[in-house]
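TA notes. Do not distribute before section.
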Amino acid sequence: MEKLPISVLVQTKNEEVGIEACLMGLGDFSEVIVVDSDSTDRTVEISSSLGFSIVNFTWNGEYPKKKQWQLDNVVTKHEWILFIDADEVPTHGLLQELRSLIPELQAKVNAAYDIPLDYVFAGRILKHGHRVFKRALVNRALVAFPVIDDLAAPGMGELEGHYQPTAIGNVPKLLGRILHDDKDPVRTWFERHNRYSEWEAFLRTHPAVREAAAQRRTPQGRLFDKVPFKPLFFFLYSYLGKHGFRDGRPGFDYAFALASYYWQIGLKVREIERTNILTADQREETI
């Protein structure tokens, strides 16, 4: 079968646990490039032994961050780029849909496509509850990741934050999904979201940066950003409204974990605001 005329850019940093499964799931694409961020484990060794091309990325602490840097610097065979994380793999349904899209991709009817994720949590593929969409399939000439003034923010580092790249053109949603199956221990999920919450708290206490990031989020994301009592609202939305309960205990665990993530952001925001007030009072006393 003819290979898909799409270049896959695989994001890695110390991903030796899952990188082989990821790369073995990309055989339908005509080009796959591993973009590694100075891994200190066997990620590069495993990728190289499997015959894949590797490009190293060392972040200099400034913009562009990792994905935009790839659009600017990594030479690919094709204009259409599929961004894949090392714990992700396209499902059979997505591969079929991409084959049907080839004429549309060649005609550049759209600038990018948002792809839903099938998320694995607590050992189960979640079919219900909150669903994440990623703008993962892009025409490299028609998208760009915005520059957000968040370099002073902790949490994200070299990666673009939780916002979508800007596209010059239409961005439809695909039906086929990417399977997100993180094979690391569940503690790493909490470690990542602890970092992410630091970034989110920074945004919420810096209005200009928050507004700039909000403009790059989906309409649903911007609406949710204004919702009060986010932890409770999200849990009710995901577990009850989106039928997360139908996924059994993992469905509850996922809804509760993400609700706790939003609680964590709120707690950190209140701490920052309290610290700022104390600092301002101390300055006034000095004066």
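Switch to the second chain here.
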Amino acid sequence: MLNKLIILLIILLSLLSKNRPMTYGGLFIFLLSFLNKEYLNRLDKGIFLTLGMTSLIIWMLIPLIQTSATINSFHLKSYLNLEGLVSFISGLMIVIIASKGSRFINDNVSSLLGITLGSIIGVAFLGGIPVGMLSGAGMAYLIVKLIKILIGDS
């Protein structure tokens, strides 16, 4: 019952902050919460991650078809600049960090509420966009790991 109340709180906060993806996700999970628990235990969460990531990748790649870019405009030399190299390294690092975040959330369910509320507040008050929960989980993983190293509790 407490889980459903938390989900309803997330939906309410998402509605108030106009965070539509979080609202829709919360409503979907709220509806799923009424299903048989045995069915839910067999449900592959990876399907939803794949659908979400696919949607995000489609959104990111749309500019490629909106511009009048030709084969001649894609020169390797034009990507070998500061922005291109830093972007490449950032992309490489964030997928590794996000994979750690995915495991962190699965192993520490209590962290999920903090990441979710942080995401809602970031969207509502700080102009964020709700695409970074796995990255946020990865950052949480790194910060927790760093703190544990600093205090000697590895």
